[in-house]
């Protein structure tokens, strides 16, 4: 399967919210959506990214934009992660492993010469019509949320 590219429509993907409810990504059509994939709860980079999105969460909401962070961690791990770090950004679990592939976020990585499969830290911005308008791959956390917020402002 080819990864979703700019201009593509948000796929019908089912995720598990941290409260255990189900989320269909297409339910966000009607308002812009920032969807970010991150490797693992409670690791330094992922914690910083979630804290940064939480710090800017009200700015995104003021622009009418939803934000959702996704990893393979369970809903229970997300709840603990959010509570530990006072996160307000919503988190979801790709518990059926159906979101990573269409977004091209499940990639081969190398660490200390060892190859393995993992999540590519990536962010996707959809407009209110559900059209992908911007993709960030291999995200570096410092300053990233500001870049995304600037891109959201250009949608208005």
Describe the structure.
The protein is built from five helices and nine strands. With 156 residues, the chain is an alpha+beta fold. It has one domain: Glutaredoxin. Strands 2-1-5-4-3-8-9 form a seven-stranded mixed beta sheet. The chain has a two-stranded antiparallel sheet with strand order 6-7. It is globular and about 45 Å long. Helix content is 29%, strand content 28%.
Summed up, what is this model?
The chain has 156 residues and is α+β, with helices and mostly antiparallel strands. Helices cover 29% and strands 28% of the residues. It has one domain: Glutaredoxin (3-Layer(aba) Sandwich), CATH 3.40.30.
List the helices and strands and how they pair.
Layout: E1 14-17, E2 22-24, E3 33-37, H1 44-55, H2 57-62, E4 66-71, H3 75-85, E5 91-93, H4 100-103, E6 106-111, E7 114-119, E8 122-126, E9 132-136, H5 144-155
Parallel strand pairs: 3-4, 4-5
Antiparallel strand pairs: 1-2, 1-5, 3-8, 6-7, 8-9
User: Could you say how many structural domains there are in total?
Assistant: 1
State which percent range the strand residues make up: 25-35%
Largest sheet: 7 strands, mixed
Q: How many H/I helices?
A: 5
State mean pLDDT (0 to 100 scale).
93
Give a count of the beta strands, DSSP E runs of length 2 or more. 9
Report the CATH superfamily: Glutaredoxin
SSE run: EEEHHEHEHEEEEH
CATH fold title: Glutaredoxin
Regions with little confidence, pLDDT below 50 for 5+ residues: none
Strand order of the largest sheet: 2-1-5-4-3-8-9
Quote the distance from N terminus to C terminus: 32 Å
Radius of gyration: 15 Å
| Structural classification | alpha+beta
